[in-house]
Write a structure and sequence with these properties.
Blueprint: H1 13-23, H2 25-38, H3 44-55, H4 61-71, H5 80-104, E1 108-109, E2 112-113, H6 115-119, H7 121-141, H8 145-168, H9 176-201, H10 206-233, H11 236-239, H12 245-248, H13 254-262, H14 267-276, H15 284-293, H16 296-314, H17 322-336
Antiparallel strand pairs: 1-2
Helix pairs in contact: 1-17, 2-5, 4-5, 4-9, 4-17, 5-7, 5-9, 8-9, 9-10, 10-16, 10-17, 16-17
Length: 339
């Protein structure tokens, strides 16, 4: 464990991102090499698609969380098993994105054509399945029933979340409770699993394991709340995917749930946007203005900050270190980013 020294405070996402990833630069390079290895195949089409997905990039937040959670408990994240499982988490995440893009008929992902848009839905479905199976094959080789159980439950919850969301497509009567149920299943449980598995690989005690599991869960909720705001307030070039797409795909997120509570007469216009698949009844910039005028963007940010506070509190049981400080930086980064 490196000696802890207090950091200079910053809320700039670019500075925080650099600080986080510079600390684990070597480990993330190992993850990238492992991802390339795990996504390769002697079947040419799989090898090509695997490389296409890996080269599409992404923030790699999830493997970074596993590595940081391992280090914060005096683990050694350069060990092969830690790198392998950090890579598994990114592959599971990538598989969900591939399947989500098919369901959403999305054309863009990380500023590149999505797999379904470029190669077709059938190829994308099978490639997503292959990524899932490859990830689980790697996990089984670790011979840890506890980790296998966590990832099995995780995959079931993510699938359930997608199915529940499908039953709500095009509906404007989504409750806040239903929204958070879907959010936790589709996003937060994966963050939580990354942190918990990192802790297990470091030999965590029960209290430490729970602390990092809870940290990841709260972080995941804050991350998705921030994403939902960005979908409505940012532009496609910044996001790397189609901005404003949630509503076009028939998904009602928390900002719009709150807006409808304040402006119920807006319902026919939102229904038309969902039906038309474009911002015809009301322009996206006008909708954004309504969200700001009614204080909803600020309310959502405050909700995200509340989950950040809970996540930070979860870390109290851990000793102060560069890695705990870095986990705190992650909290500030996810709520301050613009993509």
């Amino acid at each position: 464990m490196q000696t802890f020294a207090p950091k200079q405070e910053s809320t700039d996402p670019a500075i925080l991102s650099k600080r986080i990833f510079d600390l684990i630069k070597t480990e993330m390079q190992l993850v990238e090499a492992e991802y390339e290895r795990q996504a390769s195949s002697n079947i040419q089409v799989i090898d090509y698609l695997g490389e296409y997905l890996r080269a599409s990039g992404g923030k790699r937040v999830r493997p970074a969380l596993l590595i940081l959670s391992n280090y914060v408990l005096d683990g050694d994240a350069t060990k092969d098993n830690v790198i392998r499982l950090a890579t598994v988490m990114e592959m599971l995440h990538t598989a969900t994105l591939v399947h989500d893009d098919i369901i959403d008929n999305a054309d863009l992902r990380r500023n590149r054509s999505s797999v379904n848009a470029r190669f077709g839905n059938q190829t994308a479905v099978l490639m997503g399945d292959w990524l899932y199976m490859s990830a689980f094959e790697t996990t089984v080789r670790e011979r840890s029933l506890e980790i296998i159980d966590i990832l099995t439950r995780l995959t079931r919850k993510m699938t359930e979340g997608e199915l529940i969301q499908l039953t709500r497509i095009g509906r404007l009567d989504i409750s806040e409770a239903e929204y958070f149920d879907i959010l936790e299943r589709k996003t937060a449980f994966l963050f939580s699993a990354c942190c918990e598995v990192g802790a297990i690989l470091a030999g965590a005690g029960e209290a430490e394991q729970k602390a990092l599991r809870d940290y990841g869960m709260h972080l995941g909720v804050a991350f998705q709340l921030s994403d939902d705001v960005l979908d409505l307030t940012s532009e496609t070039e910044t996001l790397g995917k189609a901005a404003g797409s949630d509503l076009l795909e028939g998904k009602l997120t928390l900002p719009l749930i709150y807006l409808l509570e304040r402006l119920p007469d807006l319902q026919p216009k939102l229904e038309k946007i969902m039906f038309d698949g474009e911002y015809t009844a009301i322009r996206r910039e006008d909708l954004r203005a309504l969200l700001r005028e009614n204080g909803i963007i600020q309310v959502i940010k405050e909700r995200a900050d509340d989950y950040v506070t809970r996540a930070r509190k979860s870390l109290d049981v851990l000793a102060e270190s560069r890695y705990r400080s870095c986990l705190e930086d992650v909290l500030t980064f996810v709520t301050g980013r613009n993509s």
